Amino acid sequence: MQSERLPHTVSPAKLAQRRIILDGNIPLGKLDRLSEQLVKIDTDGLVALRLEFGKDKQGFTTIVGSASTQVELICQRCMEAMTFDLNAVISLALVANDEAASELPDRYDPILVESSGLIPLRSLVEDDLILALPIVAYHDSPCGYVDDKQTEESGVEASVENPFSVLEILKH
Q1: Least confident of 79-93, 112-126, 135-149
Q2: How far apart are CA 28 and CA 53, in angstroms?
Q3: Residues contacting residue 20 through CB under 8 Å, at least 6 positions apart
Q4: How far apart are CA 49 and CA 6, in angstroms?
Q5: Is 93 within 8 Å of 106 (Cβ atoms)?
Q6: H helices then E strands: how many in the chain?
Q7: pTM of the predicted model, to two decimals?
Q8: pLDDT tens across 28-79, in order?
Q9: Nearest-angstrom CA–CA distance, 106 and 141
Q10: Upper half-sphere CA count for residue 163 (Cβ side, 13 Å)
Q11: 56: which DSSP letter?
């Protein structure tokens, strides 16, 4: 089952039995919690999503895939907006309780499934995208920010005025 239009909720257990792959897009503007972290919300922006539902060799029901989009963040060096390629790797396993979650291999993050067996697809993807955000966003190339190390490396001496130089007058 491949679809451009993704469902709002999914039953991972049922999809895993049939080894379904979901390919599609989610509007970036529909991810409210992620949008709160961004400078500007691109209402036309899309999150490209690919999820594979299945069972691994140990019998765990799994959801593996990726989600990617471009977002606007604030560079913490120059405090200007910057475009950032946000890519989340999704590797989840369904569990019924906390005890089962503690038995999962490290390669999986647990996802608790409610009694209905349904999970909201957007929330699942949004959680992983939020976790993929950088702790500190900054441009890869030099931006408007100049620090002391950059000045020393370029051979230019930084002229720093001594804040206590005014007190020289009191010495005499």
Answers
A1: 135-149
A2: 23
A3: 1, 52, 53
A4: 9
A5: no
A6: 6, 7
A7: 0.74
A8: 888 989 988 888 777 778 999 999 999 988 888 999 999 999 999 998 888 8
A9: 34
A10: 0
A11: -
Nearest to 36 by CA among 81, 86, 71: 71
Identify residue 1 by its one-letter amino acid code: M
User: Is the pLDDT at 19 greater than 90, yes or no?
Assistant: yes
Per DSSP, what are the bridge partners of residue 34?
none
Q: Which amino acid is at 47?
A: V
Average pLDDT over residues 104-124: 86
Rounded distance between C-alpha atoms, residue 66 and residue 23, angstroms: 10
Percentage of the chain surpassing pLDDT 90? 34
Contacts by 81-89 with C-beta closer than 8 Å and gap 24+? 81/39, 81/40, 82/137, 82/138, 82/139, 82/143, 84/134, 84/137, 86/129, 86/132, 86/133, 87/132, 88/125, 88/128, 88/129, 88/131, 88/132, 89/128, 89/132
